[in-house]
Amino acid sequence: MSLKAFHIVFITASILLAFGFAAWALVNFSEEGGRSFLIYGVVSSLCGVALVFYEVYVIRKLKHLSYL
Prior knowledge:
By secondary structure, the chain is mostly helical. Helix content is 84%, strand content 0%. It is built from 2 helices and no strands. 7% of the residues are buried.
């Protein structure tokens, strides 16, 4: 696996983790309340969005390299 392929897989896994954690935190906020769950959910969602933009940037920057 090339560095490009590993990077894309790793960023995709990070995006899924960030949005999954945000969903968990926001569900806990809606059930239990607590300001910390809301903060965790919002910050994690923002990190997920930033990672999506970063992945698009990486794919555009490394488009001349092969995945193998």
